[in-house]
């Protein structure tokens, strides 16, 4: 393809008749030219290096001439990246080889890249760009070498550039930029004598006839040579000696409007020069410039020029000062941004989206981070609080997340804005209440973003945000108070119930974020708590203290929901207890326990403000738990242990929709794990085993708080609930940010429900029954043309019909609601179980040596069995399986034997094997296998720690070694019982085709516990012959191979016990190979031969066993195999049988010689 392309490319160019082609034979050099057109810059650079290296090595004049000629030709190539590659290579070649005459290269460029009369549009364009790239290459070489002998060529280069700038419009900008670049390296004397006459037309064009490029070149000349040129040189044609004088803004505006093409709108390079100038002047001149050029110029013109105006935002954002932000982000531009994003049919819809996406990146390049809050204020004040929603972007949200400096100042502005309820402080009387709600919704969401995005916020700022939200969520200000920051101003517009709900929601979300804040100096220990201030105190405890202060200021603030005297008493008792716990000091465990208790009490105390009735009962139970935990001996055996009560409380928190309380549970539960009793543990296990109707009772406790806390689901970052809870929360967040009326949304939902009623046969029958005789018969629909006459019909009959129809639709609506509630309940139960599984995972990790972990095996397996068959419970299945397989069954720390109920563990293994027999899938048998292997490891595992044994001699050690090794391998396993259980299961698997068992159960036991596996050999030999099908026989063969590959204690005795059985079975199978009873395939039969060979060789390795071997019958049976049809069909089987026979003869002769 490349060769065809190049041939077409070369053939499309006219070659002069007098051109002499240069031919070279250097293939290594020739191959490099193809890589110069690569789109990969690295490949192009490597190719240039290789060309230079090859030319330096050969130093061949013809090769250098050929290289220059080919590179010059390639400048006019239309292929992507070709001009970049050839131009860069040409520049480096000219720089490296001084013998090349630049004047000849210039003439070569004129010859090879000239525009021919036969060229079409694209060919002509490529030729012009080839000329441009060529002269730029020469200019780069001249600038590097700086020889006076190049002056003539420099003048020719400038002449060429001036010619190209006037020739084609698409060349003007790039040529003008090239001229400016050349002028940067030119002394005034050379400019005056050589370049000035050529550029005279541009320098003297004036405002009336100039182009954008003329202004660009004139500005460059003015900046470089203003000291050398007379003052009147520019004023004669440009009104002022300073082109960018404020009096020249009107004509400059006319020129800049033409700087973008209608077909391809883009920002011209002149804007960089002009913006750099005006961004450096005082604010009044910049304001005048922006007003005339952008607001009254570009924004009052076509869509293309509006695009140019909004694109300028990307240019100026990295350089803006605080004073310039309100000028740049003016109302016309912001209105254009909002209106353009109203519909995707708008001309600038996609352009505005791209600009807003890039705007955040450009703003972050600004070294002054204080401009970010100013830009947010401008977008809100001159646009709308719902700017993000209207533009369908996250501009303000992402900018707010970038605020890192002066957060306290921005927070104070937000708080003042919340109190005013409007941006304009003067217009406080005639304000739409909905606008006030939107304003305050914007404020509280911004506060949340500040906490969420900045983990290193100062504690004072964090507390200011949290206490502000807490105050306006749960209290109403009735009077000013000079001593409290948030009470110094009473909101003129009262905080309505909807706004209070938003404040509660955002306050809870802030607490969630604070619980994820960790100070580095406090993280030296593994067990740390989030939400701790730098002074070591919980933020929530500080908020409780602030709440107490507010309750004491009843003249200034009142609770939104009045408390009962009992609530006040509970609140006081909780604060006293928190202070007591906070002052406890002692050992690490006690300190951690005190810290968790403080966190639990503080968050539970805050629940008084959302649901004081339930919170009072919870706090009373917590007080009781704390008192009992301080008592070492249990006084009343009938009373539940404090961990039981606390476990139920924690499960109650998990049942709530509050993610905050789940965070508290996750932090508190690990600290009480060492103290959990069997009864408390059973409560935890029962929560996982519970069915939906049982779990619903536990979830009912959290339903009362659900209305206040359902919005917290946007903070749910748990993997198990992301899909379900985040979707609902995103909708709720949008409602809050937009300040939408909840009632309106509910009404619209109900209308949609009515429109979407599906008409099925049951509904049709119910309606017919309600209408009675007036119902239309479906069969006679075409014949029935008369309607009910409402004037003659009995009104009582019509009322009865209306009531009957209303009852039908009411009943149907109720069924739909019940169906939806049932679905939501099932989802809630799944989420609840997932949260309980988190606690179980913590228990397994913390208490691996606790015998109670063994009680998790069967409940988790049952949960896996139930959930794997339901599509809506797939995540529950995966989560349970992950804990079961990777956490529980992978433990390598086991309870001590003295703490185990050995009989119950063997009973559990037997129940698991029975469960495997009725498994619904092969995978479930695998899961059962994990459990069986784990329980056997537990029985074999850690022995009791005893007193140090007395010193014994080596001989004594050797005598006891074998016995101790045997005891250590088996532990407390009842091998006889275990082997009987597994042998029975194996017999079912091997003899019953309908068996649900899978070989993985026995393979894993053999693989991990060879000493147990050796006790399966006697039965496995029988199943080689009695297996119900070939698959079972093959599996028995594989298991025996695995067993024979494992060395165990007292292996010789094992072989003596199974020697005769094995030889007898093999002989019997081989003798029947000629009959119809042999159903094995050749490959399967050969595997059986390999097993027999392995078995015989294993027997021969042990002298005692070898001495008793009699292999005559086996040899005769192998001769039968050689004559059998199965051996005749397989050459490999015959060959192996012969090898096996030879091996048997060698072993037999060895036995005879030893005898």
UniProtKB/TrEMBL annotation:
Residue span of region Disordered: 694-761
Regions of compositional bias (Basic and acidic residues) in chain numbering: 724-740
Origin superkingdom: Eukaryota
InterPro entries referenced in this protein's UniProt entry, alphabetically: DNA_pol_V/MYBBP1A
Pfam families documented for this protein: DNA_pol_phi
Cellular location(s): Nucleus
Biased composition (Acidic residues): 707-723, 741-758
Main localization of the protein described in the UniProt heading: nucleus
One Gene Ontology cellular component annotation held by this UniProt entry: nucleolus
Entry's Gene Ontology molecular function annotations: RNA binding; sequence-specific DNA binding; transcription corepressor activity
Keyword set, alphabetical order: Nucleus
Name by which UniProt lists this protein: Myb-binding protein 1A
Protein source organism: Hydra vulgaris
Phylogenetic classification of the source organism: Eukaryota, Metazoa, Cnidaria, Hydrozoa, Hydroidolina
């Amino acid at each position: 393809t490349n060769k065809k392309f190049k041939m077409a490319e070369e053939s499309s160019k006219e070659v002069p008749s007098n051109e002499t082609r240069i031919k070279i034979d250097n293939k290594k050099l020739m191959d490099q030219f193809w890589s110069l057109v690569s789109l990969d810059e690295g490949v192009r650079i490597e190719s240039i290096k290789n060309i230079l290296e090859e030319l330096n090595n050969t130093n061949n004049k013809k090769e250098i001439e050929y290289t220059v000629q080919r590179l010059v030709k390639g400048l006019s190539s239309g292929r992507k990246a070709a001009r970049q590659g050839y131009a860069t290579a040409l520049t480096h070649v000219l720089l490296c080889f001084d013998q090349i005459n630049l004047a000849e290269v210039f003439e070569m460029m004129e010859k090879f890249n000239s525009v021919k009369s036969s060229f079409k549009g694209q060919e002509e364009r490529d030729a012009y760009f080839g000329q441009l790239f060529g002269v730029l290459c020469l200019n780069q070489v001249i600038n590097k070498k700086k020889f006076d002998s190049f002056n003539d060529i420099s003048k020719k280069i400038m002449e060429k550039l001036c010619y190209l700038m006037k020739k084609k419009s698409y060349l003007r900008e790039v040529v003008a930029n090239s001229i400016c670049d050349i002028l940067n390296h030119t002394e005034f004397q050379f400019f005056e004598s050589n370049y000035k006459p050529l550029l005279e037309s541009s320098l003297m064009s004036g405002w009336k006839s100039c182009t954008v490029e003329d202004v660009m070149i004139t500005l460059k000349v003015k900046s470089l040579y203003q000291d050398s040129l007379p003052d009147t040189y520019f004023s004669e044609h440009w009104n002022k000696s300073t082109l960018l004088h404020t009096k020249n803004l009107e004509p400059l505006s006319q020129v800049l409007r033409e700087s973008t093409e209608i077909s391809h709108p883009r920002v011209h390079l002149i804007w960089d020069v002009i913006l750099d100038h005006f961004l450096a002047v005082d604010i009044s001149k910049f304001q005048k410039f922006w007003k005339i050029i952008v607001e009254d110029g570009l924004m009052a013109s076509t869509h293309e020029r509006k695009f140019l105006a909004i694109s300028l935002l990307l240019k100026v954002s990295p350089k803006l000062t605080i004073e310039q932000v309100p000028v740049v982000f003016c109302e016309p531009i912001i209105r254009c941004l909002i209106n353009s994003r109203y519909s995707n049919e708008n001309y600038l819809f996609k352009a505005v989206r791209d600009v807003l996406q890039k705007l955040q990146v450009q703003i972050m390049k600004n070294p002054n981070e204080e401009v970010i809050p100013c830009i947010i204020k401008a977008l809100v004040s001159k646009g709308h609080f719902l700017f993000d929603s209207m533009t369908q972007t996250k501009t303000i949200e992402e900018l707010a997340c970038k605020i890192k400096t002066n957060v306290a100042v921005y927070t104070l502005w937000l708080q003042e804005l919340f109190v005013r309820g409007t941006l304009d402080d003067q217009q406080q009387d005639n304000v739409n209440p909905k606008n006030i709600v939107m304003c305050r919704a914007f404020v509280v969401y911004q506060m949340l973003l500040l906490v969420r995005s900045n983990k290193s916020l100062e504690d004072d700022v964090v507390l200011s945000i949290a206490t502000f939200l807490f105050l306006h969520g749960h209290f109403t200000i009735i009077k000013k108070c000079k001593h409290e920051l948030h009470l110094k101003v009473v909101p003129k517009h009262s905080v309505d119930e909807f706004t209070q709900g938003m404040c509660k929601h955002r306050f809870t979300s802030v607490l969630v974020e604070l619980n994820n804040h960790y100070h580095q100096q406090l993280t030296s220990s593994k067990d740390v708590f989030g939400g701790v201030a730098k002074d070591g105190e919980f933020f929530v405890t500080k908020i409780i203290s602030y709440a107490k202060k507010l309750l004491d200021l009843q003249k200034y603030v009142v609770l939104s929901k009045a408390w009962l005297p009992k609530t006040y008493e509970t609140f006081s008792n909780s604060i006293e207890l928190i202070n007591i716990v906070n002052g406890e000091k002692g050992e690490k465990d006690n300190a951690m326990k005190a810290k968790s208790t403080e966190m639990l009490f503080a968050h539970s105390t805050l629940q008084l403000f959302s649901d004081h009735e339930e919170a009072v009962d919870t706090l009373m139970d917590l007080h009781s738990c704390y008192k009992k935990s301080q008592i070492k001996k249990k006084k009343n055996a009938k009373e539940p242990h404090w961990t039981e009560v606390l476990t139920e409380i924690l499960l109650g928190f998990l049942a709530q929709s509050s993610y905050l309380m789940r965070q508290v549970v996750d932090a508190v539960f690990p600290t009480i794990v060492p103290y959990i009793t069997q009864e408390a543990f059973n409560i935890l296990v029962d929560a996982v085993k519970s069915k939906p109707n049982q779990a619903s009772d536990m979830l009912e406790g959290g339903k009362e708080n659900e209305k206040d806390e359902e919005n917290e689901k946007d903070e749910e970052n748990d993997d198990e609930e992301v899909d379900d809870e985040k979707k609902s929360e995103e909708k709720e967040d949008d409602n809050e940010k937009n300040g939408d009326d909840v009632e309106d949304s509910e009404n619209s939902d109900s209308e949609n429900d009515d429109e979407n009623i599906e008409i099925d046969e049951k509904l049709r029958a119910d309606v017919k029954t309600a209408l009675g005789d007036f119902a239309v018969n479906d069969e006679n629909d075409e014949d029935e043309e008369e309607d009910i006459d409402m004037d003659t019909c009995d009104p009582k009959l019509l009322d009865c019909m209306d009531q009957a129809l209303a009852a039908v639709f009411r009943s149907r609506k109720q069924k739909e609601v019940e169906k939806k509630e049932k679905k939501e309940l099932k989802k809630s139960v799944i989420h609840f179980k997932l949260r309980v599984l988190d606690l179980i995972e913590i228990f397994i990790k913390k208490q691996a040596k606790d015998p109670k972990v063994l009680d998790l095996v069967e409940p988790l397996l049952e949960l896996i069995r139930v959930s794997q068959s339901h599509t809506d419970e797939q995540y529950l299945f995966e989560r349970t399986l992950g804990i079961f397989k990777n956490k529980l069954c992978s433990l390598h720390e086991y309870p001590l034997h003295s703490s185990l109920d050995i009989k119950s563990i063997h009973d559990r293994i037997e129940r698991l094997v029975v469960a495997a027999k009725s498994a619904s899938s092969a995978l479930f048998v695998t899961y059962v296998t994990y459990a069986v292997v784990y329980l056997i490891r537990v029985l074999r595992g850690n022995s009791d720690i005893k007193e140090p044994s007395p010193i014994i001699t080596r001989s004594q050690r050797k005598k006891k070694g074998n016995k101790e090794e045997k005891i250590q391998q088996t532990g407390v396993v009842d091998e006889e019982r275990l082997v009987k259980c597994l042998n029975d299961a194996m017999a079912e698997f091997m003899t019953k085709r309908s068996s649900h068992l899978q070989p993985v159960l026995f393979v894993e036991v053999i693989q991990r516990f060879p000493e147990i596996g050796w006790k399966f050999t006697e039965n496995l030999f029988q199943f080689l012959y009695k297996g119900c099908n070939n698959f079972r026989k093959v599996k028995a063969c594989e298991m025996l191979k695995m067993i024979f590959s494992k060395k165990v204690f007292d292996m010789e005795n094992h072989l003596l016990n199974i020697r005769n059985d094995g030889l007898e079975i093999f002989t019997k199978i081989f003798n029947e190979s000629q009959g119809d009873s042999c159903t094995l395939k050749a490959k399967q039969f050969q595997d059986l031969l390999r097993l027999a060979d392995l078995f015989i060789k294993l027997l021969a390795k042990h002298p005692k066993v070898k001495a008793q071997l009699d292999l005559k019958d086996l040899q005769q049976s192998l001769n039968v195999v050689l004559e059998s049809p199965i051996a005749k069909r397989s050459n490999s089987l015959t060959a192996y049988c012969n090898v096996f026979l030879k091996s048997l003869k060698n072993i037999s002769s060895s036995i005879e010689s030893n005898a």
